[in-house]
Structures are given as C-alpha cells and as structure tokens.
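Weekly modeling sync, notes
Attendees: S.R. (lead), two postdocs, one rotation student

Agenda item 3: backlog of single-chain predictions. S.R. asked that every request posted to the team notebook include the full sequence so nobody has to chase files. The rotation student volunteered to paste the first one in as an example of the format we agreed on. Action items at the bottom.

Example entry:
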Amino acid sequence: MLSLYPTADHVLVEREQAQGVTKGGIILPDAAKTSTNRGVVKAVGDGKWQDGKFVETRVKPEQTVIFGAYAGSEVEIEGKKYLLMSEKDILAVIK
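Predicted structure, as returned to the notebook:
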C-alpha cells in the first residue's frame, strides 16, 4: 500500500520497465536500455477547480497510460521509483 496520495490533478505512475532484448534477440545491457514513456497509474488526485467548476481527474488507478518524454518528477517511495505528474502530461490511455 502506497504512503503517498497525489493532490489536485496530479497522478502517480509506475513506469514500465524498458525491454532488455531487441526484436532480433540481442540482449541489451542496462546502460543501453532507454526509458519507456508508458506506465501504470498507481494513484490519482481528486481533481481541480477550473473556471469556477470542480473537474474530477479522468484517469483511474491501474490504467496503462502514455506520457510525454519529459513528463513528471521522479520520486522514490518505499524503495520503488515512480513519476509524479500532472494529468495534462498524460497523452493517452491504453485499453
């Protein structure tokens, strides 16, 4: 159970692990792996006030999302690394 809950329209995402093997079967060392821009939502804030109305956060926990290459701030919670980002940094939800 996480000990961190995002505020407003912020989202906590666990980034997917980079592939360690190429399509051709070549095993990549850790230094050659590039970070992926996909992850699973672990926690979301309630939403934010915009133009006098409360707008709920649209993404939900356990959804797989795609986010921008430089989105969010990396945080470490209980030994695991996560990205904490604004909902607007999420580009798409994968169904």
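Discussion: group reviewed the output briefly. Strands lie at 10-15, 38-44, 47-50, 53-56, 64-67, 73-77, 80-86, 90-94.
Action items: rotation student to repeat for the remaining queue; S.R. to check formatting next week.
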